[in-house]
Structure formats: structure tokens, C-alpha cells
Amino acid sequence: YTSLCYIILKNLDRAKDILWELEDSADKKLFLSLIGDMRARLDDIRESFFQLLSFLLKINEFELFNDVLNIYNIDFGRDDYARYGKMMQDYGFEEPAVQSYIIAAERNCQNAEVYRYLAQKAMEKGMNDDALVMASNALNLDKTDIDNYMLIYRLYTIMNKNDEAELIDKIVKEMYPEINLEELAAIAHKGF
Q: Is 179 helix (H, G, I), strand (E, B) or coil?
């Protein structure tokens, strides 16, 4: 990461000297791509790329973060958008998280968390029909995660679809007899 320090300091010649002395690695390829000496394929550097983005967020290097992101975001697939969205969510950047998750969902992402997050955001905005579609997608991807059932239960309750809510509660009780969605919903509504 010495070379990264020089990249941050905009001393690219020194960064190049250090990088060319290193053994071949994904980090080396990524950093050489940053300074313009090569363009590594995202497939070859994916882990290093996301680790670097996370590190740059931690140290508040937003300008370099955007530079790094702009090199490879054109190559993102659905899983990359999901991963980037999760990173943005974890760092509290809600708008980019939602935008990234929407793209992942449009590309038929197979990650239930993506759809659950989008459902929660839609529900917060009163877009309950859209939220129900997203929550259903999450449930279709992971029928064992109680959070998916809980979200659908809450939506049906909000939408005054009590018969549907009771059906969801019954399904959950068959799988997890100790869980009462009505109690969980009351606790969640109180903000606990």
C-alpha cells in the first residue's frame, strides 16, 4: 500500500517505480490501472477492487474512490452492483445503495437481500405495491429467511390485507412454531 500512498499524494512516478518492483498480483494490476499504465480486467482484480473501494471510504478519500469506481463500473455485472450496493448501504450512503440495488434487480440478481432492501425502502415511501413485489422476489430467492416473511407480513398488515397476513403467519408457524409474526411486527414497529 506504499504505492497507494503515492497515488493519493499524486506522485505517480514514485508509485510506478514501486509497483513495477512488486510481484504480479491483483493489487499490482489494479494500482497500475489506476495510474494508467495498464487496464486489468475486472475479473482479474475484483476482490482487490472492492477492498480498495472500502478502504478509500474508510479514509474519506472520496475523489480517488470516484476515480477508481469510474475505471471499472462500466464492467459491473449484477453481482457487482449488489456488492457495491451493500458497501454503500454499510457506509450509510443510502441513495447510491438504492440505485445500485435497482440495477442489480433489473439484471435479475439472485440475492434476496437486494430485493428486501428495495422493498423496505419502497415501504418507507408508501409504495406498498412495489414493496410487495420486491419482498416477494426476496422470498422466492430465500424461503428460509424469517425477515422475508416478516416484511411481507408487515406489508399485508399495512395494506389491510389481513387474510393474507394471517396466511403468512400460518406458514411461518409451520416452519418455526416458536415465532409469532404479530409480536415481532409490534416490536419492529416500536423501533427495537
A: coil
Q: Which pLDDT tens digits describe the chain residue by residue (192 residues)?
A: 677 777 777 777 888 888 788 888 888 888 888 877 778 889 999 999 999 999 999 999 999 999 999 999 999 999 999 999 999 999 999 999 999 999 999 999 999 999 999 999 999 999 999 999 999 999 999 999 999 999 999 999 999 999 999 999 999 999 999 988 888 877 766 653
- Its pTM stands at 0.86
DSSP-assigned states of every residue in 70-118: HHHGGG--HHHHHHHHHHHHHTT-HHHHHHHHHHHHHTT---HHHHHHH
Residue type, 149: Y
